[in-house]
Amino acid sequence: MMNFSTKRTELPLGKKTYIMGVINLTPDSFFAASRTEPAAAAERAAELVRQGADVLDLGAQSTAPNSTPITAEQEAERLLEPLRAIRQAVDVPLSVDTFYPEVARLAAENGADILNDVSGSAGDAFAAVAAENGCGWIVMHTGGCSSREAADYPHGVVTDINSFFERAYAAATAAGLSPERLCFDPGIGFGKTRQDDLTVIRRFAELNTFGCAKLAALSRKRVTALCGDTLCGTLTADTACILGGADLLRVHDVAQAKAGAAMADLIFRQQG
Predict the structure, then answer these.
(1) Helices (H), ranges, 141-253
(2) pLDDT at 108 over 70
(3) Which domains, and CATH codes, for the chain?
(4) Between helices 157-174 and 194-202, what is the axis angle to 10°?
(5) Residue 147, SS3?
(6) Which of 2, 26, 210, 243 sits at a 20 to 30 Å CA gap from 33?
């Protein structure tokens, strides 16, 4: 089995599901409970680690359907001070999600261990920043669309995702980025209908990530509301993704996700 290597540590794959706790440094993130004031960011980070987060993911620009885009300069201004404070407060790997390679570079220089690339580009720029700074690179599929839109997938959504992952893997190889520094996110909720989202969750095992880490990032998204309760929907969908080989879960509700993943690991990952 491979590891997922970050600047700070290595996460062995296949033995357990890792919990990535969300810290949103934004006023317009779709899940209000995840919004964190910059002055409280370090305290919030420490609390999520106490709840069981293995990784923390910081966002300074919302990707929610009704959010207002901001520039790279505005995002960096919102991000860097809380990032430095959190880096001093906790020892777990820190991930920063961003559209912008220039923000990713600043984040890497100020304590980030993982670059969570939500641009949907599989581009050389992010691969180069990750390789130059020894960071992990999470690559998210969007179908070329935002969370406001749904792309057309004439050959099926899973086929499109796998083609995108292949391009990202090639970009990483060209940049000299080790496969152990790659993690693939199928982008549930981005460029997809709710039926597409359900298909990705159902067929998670068919996602080809070349032995690299798989991330399920569906917490509290619109697809989880189909059952009438976004927390219950999240926990159930996350369990389905673990069965399909998810290595990391990006979540808002760390304690509940930690317990659910621990039970899923007992069922699916233990031999006997």
Answers:
(1) 157-174, 194-202, 230-243
(2) yes
(3) 3-268 (3.20.20.20)
(4) 70
(5) coil
(6) 243
